[in-house]
Amino acid sequence: MAMDLGISGRRALVTASSKGLGLGCARALAAAGCDLVMNARGADALERAAEAIRDEFGVSVETVACDVTTGDGQARILDIAADPDILVTNAGGPPPGRWSDWTRDDFIRALDANMLAPIALMKGCLPAMIDRGWGRVVNITSQSVKAPIPALGLSNSARAGLTGYVAGTSRQVAPHGVTINNLLPGIHDTDRAASLDKGVMDAEGIDRDEARARRQATIPARRYGSPDDFGAVCAFVCSVHAGFMVGQNVLLDGGATNATI
Ligand code: NAP
């Protein structure tokens, strides 16, 4: 029998959720009985994902097709989500590159996507959670928060900023029954992982299987994570059982980052 997460009937907003890790979180929350608001830019994939969740789990799913990195997109999402009990923030990750190539505009884009968008969503959702005396926020960040990856300097910089904000804010809202935590994915099998595989293929002049084998060899679990692995932990952190978990960075990376001590 599945563990009862105690959140059936709660309303959850999951941004950037038509594919990959966001979709994994949306599916796991739906399996726990949450009604959803889902978002992505591409309306077709978003509608397909929402319909599949309605069919499989029988929960209500509303969709908002827009760019979560813009103020206008955030306003539309917050309007439709109307004070959710659970907020999972996500957006696409910045492209890899080299320190000498990144311009101010590249940094501003990365900050908008991976720092300021989650902060705006939290600012929009936290007041009602506090009034209600219950809320859950999970931010999807990256293993690079614990062990920065040189080629992902734009991501490293933006996510470090978000992590600093969460460290303080999570402790300010905890007295009201609201928790904020970050999930730090290592390599998971999504389109994003495929594009990072491609980077290794091009840099090393090897084929996809070899690139994947080399990347898997760096992971003690010897496999990529799946969106379902990731979603299950997200749903647990959003559950009634995780109310004492506050301001944590939870690594989900198959052991790749040895930050245990
Ligand atoms: P993914 O498979 O490429 O999926 C990204 C999802 O986000 C899609 O549904 C996409 O739909 C949506 N999206 C992207 N940009 C958006 C925007 N501006 N506004 C609204 N929706 C947007 O990516 P993923 O692998 O799940 O990665 C999710 C996050 O985890 C990223 O920030 C990534 O950097 C981070 N991460 C991933 C891994 C990994 O191995 N997969 C590892 C570490 C960190 P549309 O394109 O239609 O908008």
From TrEMBL:
PANTHER family: 3-OXOACYL-(ACYL-CARRIER-PROTEIN) REDUCTASE (PTHR42879), NADPH-DEPENDENT REDUCTASE BACG (PTHR42879:SF6)
InterPro entries noted in UniProt: NAD(P)-bd_dom_sf (IPR036291), SDR (IPR050259), SDR_fam (IPR002347)
Protein's name according to its UniProt entry: Short-chain dehydrogenase/reductase
Database matches in Pfam families: adh_short_C2 (PF13561)
Species: Oceaniovalibus guishaninsula JLT2003
Entry's family note: Belongs to the short-chain dehydrogenases/reductases (SDR) family.
SUPFAM superfamilies (UniProt xref): NAD(P)-binding Rossmann-fold domains
